[in-house]
Description:
The protein is built from 3 helices and 5 strands; from the N terminus they run ββααβββα. It is of the alpha+beta class and 99 residues long.
Amino acid sequence: xxxxxxxxxYDPIYVRGDVEPKVETVAxxxxxxxxxxxxxxxxxxxLFEAGELHCSMHRFDEITTFHFLDERFTxxxxxxxxGADIRLATFADRCRELL
Length: 99
């Protein structure tokens, strides 16, 4: 799945057919969580003292998710199969281009 979001909701860019039913049941809760995570951005940037926070990743048994932060309450959410072997820097750069 690939979707942009803002404070009001999310806009899917791509949803693989076999995951559409799951997206319909959890998307609103995931959207709310992404907005909340974005609110903690400044804290994490100060804590790590490593510059601007661009992305966070969560790896689960079945999927790996990426949360790309843009401006306050906006960003991009991406998920891939956990077994996918990707070049992380290239993937992150391509996703950021969509913001």
